[in-house]
Amino acid sequence: MNRLRMAAACALIAACSVPPNVSARALTMAVAAEPSSMDPLFSRTQNNQQVENIFERLIARDENLQIQPGLAVGWRVVDPTTWEFKLRPNVRFQDGTPFTADDVVYSVKRASNVPNSPAPFSGAVANIASIDIPDPLTLRIHTKSPAPGFLEQIGMLFIVSRHAAEGHQSNQYVSPAVAVGTGPYKLTRWVPGDHLDLARNDDYWGPKPPFETITVRFVANDAARMSALLSGSVDLIDNVPPINVPRLKREPAVTLYSGPSARLIYLALDSSRKQSPFVTGPDGEPLQSNPLRDLRVRQAISKMIDRTAITRYLLNGAGVPAGQIVPQGMGGYSPALQADAYDPAGAKKLLAQAGYPRGFTLTIHSSNDRFSSDGDVAQAVGQMLARGGIRIANVVTQPYNVYAGAAAKQSYSAFIFSFGNTSSDSTIALSNVMATYSRSAGKGAFNRARYSNPVLDHALAAAGASFDPEQRERLLEQAAEAGFRDLGIVPLYFPENFWATRNGVTFHPNKAEYTTATYVGIQEK
Predict the structure, then answer these.
(1) Same domain assignment for residues 269 and 213
(2) What is the CB-side half-sphere exposure of residue 497 using CA atoms within 13 A?
(3) Can you name the residues that pair with 505 across neighbouring β-strands?
(4) Which of 222, 295, 399, 524 has the fewest CB atoms nearer than 10 Å to its CB?
């Protein structure tokens, strides 16, 4: 079975490696989101995806999020609380030191204690009780409780070199001597706010990477990325706005790629605090109680949002209205949770029932470079809430690397966010976005509104301990129903993603939405 998985993983890598009779070349990409760090364990947020060029995980995933061998080539359940992993032999870090089980243990310990992380990896290792090393290429990981989904958790963790990383903080990963991984490309230079330079790792254990050098330019403005592609100054762009798709289809020198996303775009509401920083009365006066804590108010807000209009007109059809955290076809999807219908009259009735017949005043925050049209979506949501009876004081959009850190500190009252599902079911999404926040337990790492629902927590914990696939599925559905009937977050839509390349460069769309060298290749002539 593992040989089949290895073959599938190598097939994807080989598809992006150098074709016969084609010389390697330089690649230049323009991406919308800038990393906050080159430390692969600093933040699980998707803008840090570029570290995937440099570092690798124990468990890899293909373009459809299916588990494949990574730095581990095999694994088995020894007993309900013990997993054994066999590591890939003859792998070296980019500084020439050998990869061993000791590096995995170091990475696991470091993952739970990275200072100032806006989205820590602590949840991925929270259930680990201890680790044994029978030999340099074997790990036995003992969990605190039965963990049927442990592969999904440990598989998220990037492996760093103890030799290179020990004693260094996240801000020191700007140095190529510290940011040392086992991946196909190695860091040569990172200029925050401008670009990232990578060079091919000629000692990479897998198929030969197709590009000698890679330059990743950070270009938040959609028009600027389009212009760079059309002028030929870059080979690939991501986050193509749906409105530009017809134009690119007419360009003979450009190839357009698209793929469905498992990312949920949602509106988070500060329902945990008695007072919230950007909520006031209809005339700007202070309120004794935060209206977002009332389920009827959250229901009203959801009914004010015309999801069909957003996906059909703002996104040119490149999106599907959402009623829960995973799309149909993924584990944990509940048929009982459909997207709320647009109902402004019903929304006003609910506001009045909650004691806000004149509404209240609210500011909406959002990123403006994280996903396609994020700033425009925030403006649209603001207009819809204003028509529904809520006074919108302002819609504030910011670069993601600034916005995400402030959101993690609970700086906002109502804010647009997204979660990219990178596993086969809803466990990780629910555990991070909606489970009650607990740093020590590794829960709620992305629960920036500090929503809490004991029913959801209980069902999620039971699902995490079940080795029965059918029972696990039922429990995940129950957890989703508890959270979304309570509107712990307001789901908006699942987008469709677009990338574009100059002819001669190929791209493999993937549900993780990554724009990394893993998915880029050279077109065979």
Answers:
(1) no
(2) 24
(3) 522
(4) 524
